[in-house]
Model the fold of this input.
Amino acid sequence: MKCSFCEQPLTCKRCGQPFRPRQRETLAAIYQPDMQLACPECQAVLTCKWCSYVYGDPDAVEETD
Ligand SMILES: [Zn+2]
Ligand SMILES: [Zn+2]
Done:
């Protein structure tokens, strides 16, 4: 899928993996500005590798491990 801001293939800036949403709800969430998205690969807040748009608030994430 594409970044909704820069139209590049949406790729996680932290781990470099392409973002592949596993749930239909995740796809819908991308278009809701208040929704936070996490990378399914590294669990970081999803940040576009190309334009650095953050899909959520990085300060709101709690480290779980
Ligand atoms: Zn990642
Ligand atoms: Zn982007």
In short: The longest helix spans residues 24-29.
